[in-house]
């Protein structure tokens, strides 16, 4: 059985602090992300991830660049995108950037590819939104080929053909681990299984049982494609806030969590707001939201492991304008109180 991995990730949203009304700069946000990664590494967590966006209310458009900076101040923690928007990225550029990161970090790079929550990258990079699914499929096919071979010949629909192209540099690792991010789409889970890559489930709320069909579909598609189950990996990602007690966590986190969904829903053209009563239900024991004291977080991770049998948990700890001191505390409690218990239970 593979070791159960625990880590943290950020999408680098730049939101106002709902209690003070102040908003930090992209420069400050970037420095905080690098400091959070160093703290996670020093505390013994396994993974640190950074997402990609192309909006002024997010601080990171190039995960590989920021992760290269993180690589220079960390020693062991693995470094992944969460996610790379593969539909609108050139697969050659993406692979070569992460191969370079792999060299800088001594073999710690991973790629988590997805289709993204926003669509502004399509006009930004000259792609047609009508090609949304076809682009992802083609770019993913090419990315896998680049990962396997040093010299590539390939022809597709959306980019120029490659004829005996040298793909350089090559990473330290034989191949860069590749994951696909899956929200709630069954077809995406089947694709990840069919290709034999890791599947990262974004479980942001509700009863986690409703995601079980994605896991079942992933394994079934992988089996039909001839992939050994021992080579497959599932990760769970979710919003996380840890304090000494669940009452403290709920009281402190609610303003930031409500703030986060207020501006994210506004970005998407929706006006939905979260109430305190609704938030109480979202943090109940049978809900997927990882808010509470260490014991509640441990119980939720272990419960989800019973459902999914996953090998990785990644906590998004910095949404909605949460002050850095609270981000630090969540990372520290995750590493010192939660991770040792979960590892002891699951790494038997």
UniProtKB/TrEMBL annotation:
InterPro entries: Bact_Lucif_Oxidored (IPR050766), Luciferase-like_dom (IPR011251), Luciferase-like_sf (IPR036661). It comes from the Bacteria. One of its GO terms (molecular function) is oxidoreductase activity, acting on paired donors, with incorporation or reduction of molecular oxygen. Coiled coil: none annotated. GO terms for cellular component: cytosol. CDD domains: Flavin_utilizing_monoxygenases. Pfam families: Bac_luciferase. This is Luciferase.
